[in-house]
Amino acid sequence: MLKDAIFKRVMSVGGISVIIAVSAIFFYLASVVVPLFMPPGVTAEASFAAPGVTSQRTAALTSEEQREIGVRVGAQGAIDFFSFDTGAVLAQDQVPLPAGATFTSFDQGERSTYTVGYGLSDGRVILAKLGFAATFPDGKRLITPSISYPLGNEPLAADPRGQAIQQLSVQQSDAGSTIVVLTQDGRLLVSAVNVTTNLMTGETKSQLQQSEIANAPNDIRQMVIESKQRELYVLHGDRSLSRFDISDKSQARLLETINLLPDGQRVTAMTMLSGGFSIIVGTDKGQLMQWFLVRQPSNEFKLVHIREFPAMPTAITALAPEFHRKGFIAGDEQGTLGSYYATSERQLFTRKLSDKALIALAVPPRGNGYLAQDAAGKIYSAQVDNHYPEVSFHSLWQKVWYESYERPDYVWQSSASNSDFEPKFSLSPLTYGTIKAATYAMLVAVPLAILGAIFTGYFMTPKMRTTVKPTIEIMAALPTVVLGFLAGLWLAPLVENNLAGVLLSLVLLPMCVLLAAYAWHLLPESLRGLVPEGWEAALLMPVIALSVWLIFQLGHPIEASFFGGDMPNWLSNQLGIKYEQRNSLVVGIAMGFAVTPTIFSIAEDAIFSVPKHLTSGSLALGATPWQTMMGVVLLTASPGIFSAVMIGLGRAVGETMIVLMATGNTAVMDFSLFSGFRTLSANIGVEMPEAGVGETHYRLLFLAALVLFAFTFVVNTTAEILRQRLREKYQTV
After folding, report:
1. Computed from CA positions of residues 621, 624, 630, 633, in that sequence, does the dihedral angle turn out positive or negative?
2. Does residue 61 sit in helix, strand or coil?
3. Backbone angles phi, psi at 611, to 5 degrees
4. How do residues 92-113 score in pLDDT, each as one tens digit?
5. Contact in structure between 313 and 328 (CB atoms under 8 Å)
6. pTM, whole model, 2 decimals?
7. Could you confirm whether domain 427-730 is CATH 1.10.3720.10?
8. Where is 379: in which H helix or E strand?
9. What is the Cα–Cα distance from 642 to 652, expressed in whole angstroms?
10. How far apart are CA 122 and CA 118, in angstroms?
């Protein structure tokens, strides 16, 4: 009794400990994932009068990376550096103005370049570039702002005729600068300064190239050069947009002209997202929409309306993109500021800042704040905790139309080589791949394991069972990395070189077994009696081996006669079914081999443990062994068999190394037997070492783990409920 009491308490403590451990895993995973879905926090909100030279209209606002210094760029060349949080003036500068000229236009280039341009009344243009040098005297960070001039101190003559520059668009990079101007007399001119560097000496040379765009649109209101300086977008009239190819600066070409809005509506603001692919348009109705180029069946690119965002209360008056992400902020004429993210189609937050229209906006390089100025000359600043704007239910589980894609799709692509990359974090293809891998593995494992368990537990002689069962159970101990290695380097080429034979085996091998059984039945009783009862299965091993060899030999002439000697290539060329060497068929065989011992062992124990008096009673009442098996043994053992299948399913869902080594590991949604896939577990194993702690990618990998956890929890809970019902239904007294 003492032993029983101790054992009862030990088992209770162990069971409760398991529950606590599993719950702790869940709560830990959830604690990492929950911040992904928290709304952005806006703190340190402040407002102050526009610093510096207040007599000049604010042309642009910006900020340096640390969100310590804000910059107000005046329309007449004044540049004021001020404290981001308080508005206190830290430094001032002035873009030099040539004698006899005045400032007539302004434009701000790609935000990450900190380039601004001024058009002059004499047809010339000045490019200025803001700089922020960080030093650490006495161990404290000191940021010193400065201004440089990429094209030199002398203005560039954009119009040889000397007409005033009414509209201006600029882009600058290390490879050169592109300037497009609209002159007072309506000419649209392109100027390009190309910079080449001698790799041996480091010497740079500049070359000026200028041309005029023929048939320029009338009523031009805004021009935008995309960041790679290959295309020009011209907004004209109320709602029309023309796209020009300016990759050849000597001869610009009109590619298309479209209407962004229906009749009666007007575009009131336009900007380009980071990377230079997408245009964000704001309207007089407060609407916000995204357009970008999409390849058409004719292999041409056309601007396509991709998505709309939740509207602002009134007409959009200002837009500002983030430096490196696909986010932007918008201001309307009632002083409301809204923050948006394009890929996730989210409105992150809105703030009522003023009763006046917002005329200038800016986002710091890290996207962790905003600057806004209203028409009354008041500036509003804040710190924004906005780490995971690219995450939403839509971006994780639904089709998303990504930049440069021809249609919406499910895509997981977590990294790229440059900052133009649009994060693609769809968990759908990974979940799909997990289900696909488990499905094919179970299709292989369940019939083999259950039928093998039935024969071993009920029909096989005890002496043979003592050899077969431990042998199969030892197979469960094989490291999956070894199985994955063999599947990727040996099985995958074998299947590819004998594809017709492998597919024929699925149909002909069962037929060969049935024929062998029928032939055995036709043998004289004297011959069959030589094999002890329960040992018949041993005779099937050479039959199966010989059958597989013959089927593989038959597959080669069939492949040569009907598939041109190369069935994988025939599938791709004739049926459009892409064949990958490491595919679902290979994974199904390898994972089925890995899962079969687990299901077999548990199911066999359940069948073997059926009380003998039940089977003896059935046989005594005249039932045949097969009738007893189907009507008594299987029903009684069904709870254990069901548990075996569910445990095998959990094993297949969580498998990592086999799918990692035996598939192409590509995150695609294709149920084809001949394509690869990527599973949640393999994705975690591959990408977790590369993920930055606390970043979106890192937390999404934990979300993938949580999805796996939830999936197995739901499946196991459902399985346990069904098992208990089966046990109650078929239990014996």
Report:
1. positive
2. strand
3. -55, 140
4. 999 999 988 999 999 999 999 9
5. no
6. 0.87
7. yes
8. strand 378-385
9. 15
10. 12
